[in-house]
Structure formats: C-alpha cells, structure tokens
C-alpha cells in the first residue's frame, strides 16, 4: 500500500513538473511576440533607451502616421501577400499530395530513384539558383508578376516527402484496389479517397507553406519592382531606408501587422499539426 502511494505521489510530482516546464516554454515562445507588439506602441527614443518593455505605450497612432508617411500601404501589401501565399499553399498541398500518391500507390521501375532525386533537390538552397531564375523570368517577361512566385510551388520536395511518409501509414492500398475493381478512375480515386484521408497532413503542410510564403523576402525582392506589387515583408524591409533616422516604433508596427495573419492561420489549423505528424509517422 505504501509502495502504491509512493508511486502515485511520484507520478503527481512528475506531472506538476511537466506542467511547469510546458508553461515556461509557452511563456518563452510568446514573450518575443509580446515584446514586438509592445514596441509597436512605443516611440523610437523609448525603444533605444529601454529595449524591453512588457507594457504598452502611447505612440501607436504616431507610429501609424509614420507608416503612411513612408508610403507603407498595409492593405495593398496584405492583399498581395494573401494572393501569393494562398496560391502557393494550394499548389504545394495538392500537387505534392498527387506526387506522393504516385510514389506510394503505383509500382513502377523508377519509383525509388525518382524519390531519391526529389530528396537530393531538397538539399539545394533556393539562393543558388536565384540569378538563373531571375534571368529566365526576365526572358519570359514575368517580372513584376505573381506567377513566378506561385507556380514553382508545384514542385515542393519537402512537402512531397512529408506527404509520402503520411500516406505510407494512413492509406490502405486495399481500398484503392477495391475502387479500381468498381470501375473508378484514377483521379476519382485520388480526389474522393486519398485526399480526404490525407486531410491532417494537408492542413499541416498548408500551415508551413502559407507561413513560408508569407515571410518570403528573397524571391519577391528580386522579381517585384513596382510598389503596387510589393508584399508585406518588402514593405517592412523598406521602412529602414532612411540612413539618418530610423523610426523603430513604425518598424515594429509593420512587423506586427505582418505577423498577425500568421497567428490567425496558425490557431485555425494548429490542431492538425500534431495529428498530421503523429499519423504520418506510423507505418502500416
């Protein structure tokens, strides 16, 4: 009896420790964003004198006026980023799942070498091909267009790898064979059977793709030169263009406006991340 009481007491202590650690990690994760939001309400002098503050100040409206004075158009930047990020997310999720489906369901001779090639491509940084990509888009007259920022998302090696690992454990091949016996077409099987089964993995990759595209600065910076095409990260990067004086309050406000949509997307789909990773790691 004493042994059982000792075990139950130890388990309660371990549970309390786990909760404390989780709370501390949660605070550490939220703290940088909270400081950024608070700095968006502070003036440049306050930020320079005291860089950390957990309480809001009174300079929010003045920082907003500075943003408008620097031709910062959050509505236009938000719409441009939303168009690009939504297009990238749709292309990445659907076509990556389609490729992963072909790697899992179909038994063809070059399947393993093709998957190895996809993994090799995943190791190549995008910056290496930046100059060649820009020259190619310039010859196609696709600069200052959203198409070269959206269409390359069709080929996403990391998303293909994740989708493949998920389908290996979550997609029963017997269901595919039964649907074929019933006369269903291949695209019908994919859209009606495989796609609903892969919803957790799709939601997980949708978050990663949307956040990655929304925060992307390198490719839009080299392709977009017209102000009406600028995305939110480009607009924020231009806020520090004055070499004589930088309004840090307005910079933090621009960063806050950039991050807010990501919080909305994350909290809307967050529950799918753990489910997608857990189920995708199980192999049947």
CATH classification, class level of the largest domain: Mainly Alpha
Low-confidence stretches: 280-284
The rounded Rg comes to: 24 Å
Shape: globular
Strand content: under 5%
**Average predicted confidence as pLDDT:** 83
The CATH architecture of the largest domain is Orthogonal Bundle
Report on the architecture of this protein.
With 284 residues, the chain is mostly helical. The chain has two domains: 2-59; 65-280, MetI-like fold (Orthogonal Bundle), CATH 1.10.3720.10. The protein is built from 15 helices and no strands. The longest helix has 38 residues, at 2-39. The chain starts with a helix and ends with a helix. The model is unreliable at 280-284 (pLDDT under 50).
In short:
Helices cover 73% and strands 0% of the residues.
Structural topology:
Blueprint (H helix, E strand, L loop, with lengths): L1 H38 L4 H6 L10 H10 L4 H32 L5 H12 L7 H10 L7 H4 L6 H14 L2 H9 L4 H12 L1 H16 L3 H6 L8 H6 L10 H22 L1 H10 L4
């Amino acid at each position: 009896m004493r042994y059982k009481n000792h075990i139950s007491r130890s388990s309660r202590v371990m549970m309390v420790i786990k909760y404390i650690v989780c709370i501390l990690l949660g605070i550490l994760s939220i703290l940088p964003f909270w400081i950024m939001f608070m700095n968006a309400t502070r003036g440049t002098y306050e930020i320079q004198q005291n860089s950390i503050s957990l309480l809001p100040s009174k300079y929010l409206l003045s920082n907003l006026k500075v943003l408008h004075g620097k031709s910062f158009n959050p509505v236009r930047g938000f719409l441009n980023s939303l168009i690009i990020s939504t297009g990238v997310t749709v292309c990445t999720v659907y076509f990556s799942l389609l490729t992963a489906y072909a790697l899992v369901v179909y038994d063809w001779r070059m399947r393993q070498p093709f998957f190895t090639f996809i993994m090799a491509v995943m190791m190549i940084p995008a910056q290496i091909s930046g100059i060649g990509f820009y020259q190619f888009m310039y010859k196609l007259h696709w600069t200052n267009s959203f198409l070269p920022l959206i269409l390359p998302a069709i080929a996403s090696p990391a998303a293909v790898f994740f989708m493949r690992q998920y389908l290996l454990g979550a997609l029963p091949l017997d269901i595919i064979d039964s649907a074929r016996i019933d006369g269903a077409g291949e695209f019908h099987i994919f859209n009606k059977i495989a796609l609903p089964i892969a919803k957790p993995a799709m939601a997980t990759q949708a978050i990663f793709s949307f956040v990655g595209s929304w925060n992307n600065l390198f490719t839009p910076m080299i392709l977009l030169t017209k102000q009406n095409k600028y995305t939110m990260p480009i607009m924020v990067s231009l806020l520090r263009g004055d070499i004589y004086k930088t309004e840090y309050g307005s910079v933090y406000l621009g960063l806050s406006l950039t991050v807010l949509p990501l919080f909305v997307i994350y909290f809307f789909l967050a529950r799918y991340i753990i489910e997608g990773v857990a189920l995708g790691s199980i192999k049947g």
